[in-house]
Amino acid sequence: MTDRYCVFGHPVGHSKSPAIHAAFAAQTGDDIEYTAIEAPLDDFAGAWRRFLAQGGRGANVTVPFKEDAFRLCDTLSQRARRAGAVNTLILGDEGETRGDTTDGVGLVSDLKRHGVELSGARILVLGAGGAVRGVLEPLLVEGPEGLLVANRTAAKAEALAADFRDLGAIVGGGFDAVEGPYDLVINGTSASLAGDLPPLPDDLFAPGATAHDMMYGAEPTIFLRWADERGVRTVDGLGMLVEQAAESFFQWRGRRPDTAPVLERLRQAL
Ligand code: ATR
What's the whole-model pTM score? Predict the structure, then answer.
């Protein structure tokens, strides 16, 4: 029987995950089916159970279910426990549900693909919501010189940084704590959606710096336009999307697909 996978979201019609995983499976020759399922807002666990009963082997989880997915797992990877969220559900050999999060490793893989040196880097992360929490551990594991989490609501960034202090030199604060230059600035706020730019100083970037926005679209985000005007390398969130998918695929299938051609095709279709 064909192994079934899906992405759960609400809404989920816009998801690129079915196309990405179909491309991965075509590459590796894996015989899988991958669909998008809109789970009811009040019964994510039921949707997962029904999917398992229909031959489901694993799933990706997107907004707004990553915390619901976290709560229903029988076992969690260390990085998922830290993130407080799960974007990858895996049916284990004993019928148990395992939870993982691949967003952070996806970000790190994409940054490395662009040649960004994380070890010894001065990193600024903007935002302190779930998206940022999900990437802090993999960033800190790379050994940056320091990592500042800066957020509109300073207290949220301070509390978030405190949860990761055992992993490295991380501090949190308001935007007024920003003190460049930084080698890498990651925008993990949803401000771009509203066309807003966090208040940032003109001397934010060190020579050779990189600006990354977790968002993507046909046009660069307002943050990446601002960074581009300052002459630094800009990277949007499309590569992170494909890399996190590849890590999920690896968790399910034990094979690593080649992300480059898949990313190129998605880019052209934006
Ligand atoms: P997600 O799961 O995508 O991280 P979230 O948990 O709602 O979503 O977090 C959104 C983040 O974007 C927060 O850091 C938020 O700042 P606050 O904690 O102060 O709310 C940030 N954000 C949203 N709109 C913003 C804006 N217009 N300017 C600056 N920061 C913004």
Answer: 0.96
